[in-house]
Amino acid sequence: MSTKKKVLIVTRRELRKNKLINWVSEIYLQILAQGGVMPILVPISQGTIANLPDYLEDYDGLLMSEGGDISPAYYNESYSVSKLDEYDPIKDEIEIACCRHAMEHNKPILGFCRGMHMINVAFGGSLHLDVHEVNKRSVVHIDYDHYDTHRHPITIFENTPLMEWYKQKDLLVNTYHHQGVKKLAPELVAMAQAPDGLIEGIYHPKHKFVVGLQFHPERMYQEHPGNKLVFKSFIDSL
Ligand SMILES: [Mn+2]
């Protein structure tokens, strides 16, 4: 029997050449494989719901990353769907089931952007549908003209895993989101915030490893040694 650790990643789907395809950014697959971990992709399709018990029978951790908006149905917000970008109810259903299972079984969870939002929602928090409506663009959290080069500052709080990894209070981070944490789930703790007060990192102090970051360390991997430590700590906790 293989002793390799297995990490679940729910894919994302979109139309390509008139048919639905499932995909995930290769960078996560590379980082996990280089860390000796086997990524297991959980596809978004109707048949997956029936297979979920089997996916959840044998895995060591869950990685959740980018994707469309999470449906406000999961955090009881009155809403109009017109405020949502792309959203996929089946991805929501599959991913929240995986997230709740990992929570209940104390399996490590690492979430970026939408993945952080999912952690907050699964633990009982809520989300802003559009952060720029709240902050009046005092901080720009998504800039399509400078998609990969745009940065905004964050302040990292003392005595948090984020401070252990980055070892500095002020950091410039990338940013690709228009949803954001509104009410933080009661058991979770904020690790960083942007100048407009938006939470940019969360963790669960009592779980083995539950970490969510609003930014994407893998997309600025060479910019700071802390970026690698995020993934190393996750892999070490499996
Ligand atoms: Mn941001």
Automatic annotation (TrEMBL):
PROSITE patterns linked: GATASE_TYPE_1
Keyword annotations from UniProtKB, A to Z: Hydrolase, Membrane, Transmembrane, Transmembrane helix
InterPro entries: Class_I_gatase-like, Peptidase_C26, PuuD-like
Gene3D superfamilies: 3.40.50.880
Residues forming coiled coils: none
One GO cellular component term: cytosol
Domain of life assignment: Bacteria
Record carries keyword Transmembrane: yes
Transmembrane segment boundaries: 20-42
Pfam families cross-referenced by the UniProt entry: Peptidase_C26
Protein name (record): Gamma-glutamyl-gamma-aminobutyrate hydrolase PuuD
GO molecular function, one term: hydrolase activity, acting on carbon-nitrogen (but not peptide) bonds, in linear amides
